Amino acid sequence: MANYQRIDALRTSRTDWRIRAFVVKRWEETIPGADVFLHYILTDESNRKIHASVKREYFNPSFKRNLHEGEWKEIEDFVVVRKVSPFRFSEYHLEMVLVENTKIRPVENDNPPKYMKFKKLQDVFLGDICTAYPVGEHQLVGIEGPSRFEVDVDIPEVKQLRETILAKIRNEYDDESSEDS
């Protein structure tokens, strides 16, 4: 196996870095009267993310041709700079700048590790996978007559899970009610 540095080990002191990274996101930015930039969000096996960019003067056609979302790549000979923009695309305070001599190669075994695979949406929304991001709000709404549940879900993929979510909430509420009695 090749010797790769981890993203959190990158420093501004050298330019001979070699990483194995997964391309999470790619976009192009055009500033009127100025440069065109390619931007990437990259991550590695440690799940640390870093912003990478390419300015027009360093643009190499292989960047656009070879760096696609959802692929593992070996990236070598790039510059690491301190992030000066007030906008941060990752939690890391450094940014990778891909230059003319940056080499990009496919990774032989580009199957992501298990922890990098996407989870099933239903498992996330049903609470089977611990997440710090709330999906919506659920609450017991007091009305005349029997109590009812209200779930506010505006995400199209989740609307189909409404009944399953309601059933889970009812089960949790029924369990709490039986403990109180």
Automatic annotation (TrEMBL):
It comes from the Eukaryota. InterPro entries: NA-bd_OB-fold (IPR012340), RFA1B/D_OB_1st (IPR003871). Signal peptide: none annotated. Pfam families: DUF223. Residues 4-106 form the Replication protein A 70 kDa DNA-binding subunit B/D first OB fold domain. This is Replication protein A 70 kDa DNA-binding subunit B/D first OB fold domain-containing protein.
